[in-house]
Amino acid sequence: MIIGVPREIKEDEYRVAMTPAGVHELKNHAHSVLIEEGAGVGSGLDDEQYRKHGAEIVDRERLFREAEMIVKVKEPLPSEYDLLKEGQILYTYLHLAPAPELTQALLKRKIIGIAYETVQLKDGSLPLLIPMSEVAGRMSIHEGAKYLERENGGRGILLGGVPGVDPGHIVILGGGIVGSNAAKMAIGTGASVTLLDVNLERLRYLDDLYRGRLRTIMSNRVNIIDSLEWADLVVGAVLIPGARSPKLITRDMLSYMRPGSVIVDVGIDQGGVLETSRPTTHSDPIFEVDGVVHYCVANMPGAVARTSTFALTNATLPYALALADKGYKRAFREDAALLKGLNLYKDLVTHPAVAEALNMEYSPPEKILL
Ligand SMILES: NC(=O)c1ccc[n+]([C@@H]2O[C@H](COP(=O)([O-])OP(=O)(O)OC[C@H]3O[C@@H](n4cnc5c(N)ncnc54)[C@H](O)[C@@H]3O)[C@@H](O)[C@H]2O)c1
Q1: pTM of this prediction?
Q2: Which pairing describes strands 56-58 and 32-36: parallel, antiparallel, or unpaired?
Q3: pLDDT for 323-357, tens place per residue?
């Protein structure tokens, strides 16, 4: 199969959908890989590194014209719509549910649209979203530490303290992928760390894992208020799948916090846990409400593009290989998780949640393909 990896053109997007090692693997399986000139530059990967592993470096037009499968990071932008061809596989983050215009444009081009975010294993986990939650969770502590510095608006707290001086206090709301990765980093700083979740099983697991280095507390309003009173850094890492985040910290609760404390609301993509949150960007990441610094960047992994590129492609490559080796029909037939990723099949919507969100007809993929 001919696989094409274009340069990402969305603002502030520095990731690329394939590493040179990925090219190497695909070449080993006798596939051809076209990489757009400069596609890896944002992640510190130059054309020569791709060429060394057998990729052909080409311009955008040729890439879209010749590739049978386009592997990307973000959804196509309007300037890319007309480059897509009927029957081409588009394997990328698509996020179609809130995007009727994009969905219509793709249906019109009759592509095979496989969305990273809906590939789903039997246990309900989302293997192509997990790596980005891992990145954002770990990064939340770095970012929090940065904004706790006096010059950046914070209380002037060093999270680890020093001998003879109290360490900082970190409170993590939610103990899933983001929260547990934040906890790992938080414990590493030497700060005192508390994590709240509503899932007792999850709290048991984390308590066992960290043996006394992490306080686990049931998440409810009383316990959250108690925690806020002594928190220097709060990380919002709550998710209720398919729903907007619950507003666990209302505006009046900010008054329990000390001026200059910091909240990193990682779940901002689902609305965030703070009533006072609104999405921010890497170029303007923070704002202050009632003396509390809010960090609400919706695409945190973008700041560490190189790490994120490697983390993402580690997870996406096995599916890309299956699609290329077997052809999409057999790959879908043999892997129910991958089939869940199929959002669009030519002019049909094949994912129930996308169809429902857009009020469009749903065509079960099993009926079309298997
Ligand atoms: N800003 C970014 O760049 C970025 C990057 C990656 C992920 N995210 C977002 O971070 C959020 C968390 O993702 P995740 O992968 O950790 O999800 P997850 O499903 O692994 O974990 C969510 C956790 O929240 C807990 N929870 C639910 N209700 C709660 C409550 N009332 N109080 C405390 N805990 C509660 C759940 O029990 C679960 O353990 C999501 O919204 C995700 O989209 C944002």
Answers
A1: 0.91
A2: parallel
A3: 999 999 999 999 999 999 999 999 999 999 999 98
